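input
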Amino acid sequence: MTINTADWTALAGELDAHGCALTPPVLTPAECASVSGLYDEATRFRSTIDMERYRFGRGQYRYFAHPLPPLVARLRAAFYPRLLPIARDWAARLGKPAPWPDSFDEWLDLCHRAGQPKPTPILLRYGPGDWNALHRDLYGDLVFPLQVVIGLDRPGEDYAGGEFLLVEQRPRAQSRGTVTMLPQGHGLIFTTRDRPVRSARGWSAAPVRHGVSTVRSGRRHTLGLVFHDAA
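output
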């Protein structure tokens, strides 16, 4: 796991410039296989979502139940303190409160006491023809402004298509789209809801949505790490 040794100054700069940032590998191929292999162990999950049924796209994802798999829990806890300074900086630019404590456990406790006790890490599976509609992951009043998705399969070998999509609504301008192919084991950091962009009047909050383009062949798994729990 290279989370602590990544160049976080550079990653913060990428987030400011593009709204997303690709980390170095944080999982080995063996770890990726171990996580994606959990998908068929139904007892590890609290809920399964059929995206087509809810008009979210097409494909399926599952929310992990407590206790989280140790590797998933470690990833979440390791990313939080690295993302926290970026979250606080963004809040300061936008003149918004920054309610996130130094301790990830304390933050989760705040979520739980606010009626958000459900774990939010998800495992997603896409097959040929599957896709994910543009959306934002807001599960309650307490929201952490950044999240991470980790690629578990090899693009171009295990599957084709399935690019990660980010669409940013610019102030008084056309929306801007960004496309990222997720290498196996790498994490993509992106905003949960919006991000600060410069405007004529200073800083404005640009709404951002994310999704996945159509998978043309093969099977694509990703691990989604949201840093607030759900109501």
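quick obs: Residues 70-94 form the longest helix (25 residues).
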